[in-house]
Design goal:
Layout: E1 10-11, E2 22-24, H1 29-32, E3 34-39, E4 48-51, H2 52-64
Antiparallel strand pairs: 1-2, 2-3, 3-4
Length: 65
């Protein structure tokens, strides 16, 4: 990640702790324009930086489901 701010990772409260979760860091949305996403089982692994608009659209679709 190329940001100077540190991501504050969290897992959804809807997670059932079954191990198939992702963590997100929404604290970088305003300052960096991205929402970092990572695999909760591989915290040192790759991070996907999702543009804020795309992440918001994803969350909106999930809430409608």
């Amino acid at each position: 990640m190329t940001t100077t701010a540190s991501p504050r990772w969290f897992t959804s409260s809807y997670s059932n702790n079954g191990g198939d979760c992702v963590e997100v860091a929404t604290n970088l949305a305003a300052s960096q324009g991205v929402v970092p996403v990572r695999d909760s089982k591989d915290r040192g692994g790759p991070v996907l930086e999702v543009p804020v608009a795309a992440f918001a659209a994803f969350v909106s679709m999930v809430r409608r489901s």
